[in-house]
Amino acid sequence: MTDRQPVRQRFRRRDRQLSSVNKRWKAARLVAVGVLPVGGMFLAGLKAIDLWQGDPFPAADPVAVAHRLDSRTQAIYDALQLPDARLDPAWPGSGTKATVYDCHPRGLGNLSSVLSDSPPQEPGTAAVSTSWALEGVPAATAAEAMARAQQTLTAAGWTVTSYDVASADDATLRLRPPATEDGVAVRAGVTVYPRGDLKVFAVSECVRYPGGTVVDSEGTPRVPDRPDAPSQLRPRPTPR
Questions:
Q1: pLDDT digit string (tens) for 37-95?
Q2: pLDDT grade, residue 234 (50/70/90)?
Q3: Strand-pair category, 170-176 with 125-135
Q4: 3-state secondary structure (DSSP) of residue 132
Q5: Does the predicted TM-score (pTM) go above 0.70?
Q6: Cα separations (Å) of 65 from 76, 127, 182?
Q7: Quick one: which of 46, 80, 100 has its CA closest to 191?
Q8: Helix (H, G, I), strand (E, B), or coil: what is residue 133?
Q9: CA pair distance 196, 123, nearest whole angstrom
Q10: Which of 218, 221, 222 has the alpha carbon at shortest distance from 208?
Q11: How confident is the model at residue 31 (pLDDT cuts 50, 70, 90)?
Q12: What gap in Å lies between CA 36 and CA 19, rounded to an integer?
């Protein structure tokens, strides 16, 4: 009996240790089982809040956005390779401008108001656009120019979002330029019209402009007042 006593004690200690390990393992599993659903619910809650509130408007200076749009339309003109085309000074709607009427609150929480007949404007936001047109571009020449622009710009990292061709003198090429650090999305493109007109345009998404931005009585930011045309076709300053 005396010889067996230490052996039994060792087995008992081992059983107690194994039992303790098993209890800790069961406790860890219970914690994991409880934490994982809670963590998943927390992440799902954050996602639901994002959907309800909507993505925030990117912050940007409308003047800087206007300069960027000018460079985008300049890139399109260079890619078209139409040195003989003339600027159409009477093209309706040409120019660079900021607008606030298309900037509405985002998110599912504002869906009903946005879908109403008079959706509210999001304070402190504006979209910027620029456009100008060339005249005297025959339909066949315009089609070749748009094909050149598509090839050149996509090679430079632009993405074609659509290319709608109803006829030789009724076509629109829409592109998305490469992303920028401020995250402001831009749409740009070329539209061919009958009678030899070809419009180049660029539009930004709505941005939240910084405090201190110069605005008019309706809260629309002021953007540069300059000739809206590619640099090659802008009026030369008169020598003094």
A1: 545 554 444 344 554 456 899 999 999 999 999 999 999 999 999 999 999 988 888 89
A2: confident
A3: unpaired
A4: strand
A5: yes
A6: 17, 9, 10
A7: 80
A8: strand
A9: 41
A10: 221
A11: very low
A12: 26
